[in-house]
Write a structure and sequence with these properties.
Helix content is 23%, strand content 38%. The protein has 140 residues and is of the alpha+beta class. Belongs to the UPF0047 family.
């Protein structure tokens, strides 16, 4: 069994849902060594998240942003945590709803994503800054 781990520091993205599949793959060239395996991508932040979804039509990502903004509004007077601005507590809630990691099978040296699937960085802050990921791949 082989195990590889790599850090990836993403440039700052604007608020929204962004496809980062190629950045993940480029950061882990060792994927090519695996016949079968697993790749986990973990984000080291509490106000951004990861997901896997539609990689072709950008309106899907726009609709994701619209939905989560309706589901978890800013400026709710019941929020107690608001030291970092009106987008901070909603960002934590959205990140918990979507999660901090994705797990993808590796098949014949490639991520075994479906035809229309991509890895999303879900940036929930207006100015989230650089985001750090840990990518771990293991298998044969």
């Amino acid at each position: 069994m082989k195990i590889y781990q790599q850090s990836l520091h993403l440039r700052p993205y604007r608020r929204g849902f962004h496809i980062i599949t190629s950045e993940v793959v480029n950061a882990m060239p060792q994927l090519a060594e695996f016949k079968t395996g697993i790749c986990q991508v973990f984000i080291q932040h509490t106000s951004a998240s990861l997901s896997i979804n539609e990689n072709a039509d950008p309106t899907v990502r726009q609709d994701f942003e619209m939905y989560f903004n309706k589901a978890v509004p800013e400026d709710d007077p019941d929020y107690r945590h608001d030291d970092e601005g009106s987008d901070d507590m909603p960002a934590h809630l959205k990140a918990s709803m979507l999660g901090c990691s994705v797990t993808i099978p590796i098949r014949n040296g490639r991520l075994a994503l479906g035809t229309w699937q991509g890895i999303y960085l879900c940036e929930h802050r207006n100015h989230g800054g650089q985001r750090s990921l840990i990518i771990t791949a293991w298998g044969e």
